[in-house]
Amino acid sequence: MSALPRYIPSSTSLHSGPWRRSTFSTGMNNCVETAEIGAGPLAGLLAVRDSKRSAGPALLFSAAAWNNFLDTLQPTDT
Question: For residue 1, is it within any domain?
Answer without folding.
Answer: no
